[in-house]
Amino acid sequence: MFWPLSIYRLMYPKGKYIWAQVRILHGTEKAILVDNGTRTWIPKSRICGIELRNNFFEIYVRESAVG
User: Fold this and answer.
1) Using 50, 70 and 90 to split pLDDT, how confident is the model at 59?
2) How does strand 49-53 pair with strand 56-62?
3) Does residue 2 surpass a pLDDT of 60?
4) Strands (DSSP E) found in the chain
5) What are phi and psi of 50, to 5 degrees?
6) Do the beta carbons of residue 30 and residue 44 sit within 8 Å?
7) In the chain, domain spans
8) Sorting pLDDT into bands at 50, 70 and 90, what band is 3?
9) Which of 3, 13, 25, 63 holds its CA 20 to 30 A away from the CA of 36?
10) Which residues contact 21 (CB under 8 A, 6 or more apart)?
């Protein structure tokens, strides 16, 4: 069990996850090529969710994964 304020949490903070609006350009078995100003390959294992909002795709990924 981890305490809310422990040395482990200070040394290994949880990464921030965000919803990023992207345009999906191409998909393979292992990754998706997205365009959010720059073209980026994102491994499918790093994508936690995909939604369609107002005719735009949004992916739920770590903040560092998308621009």
Assistant:
1) very high
2) antiparallel
3) no
4) 17-27, 31-35, 39-43, 49-53, 56-62
5) -135, 135
6) yes
7) 13-65
8) low
9) 13
10) 36, 53, 56, 57, 58
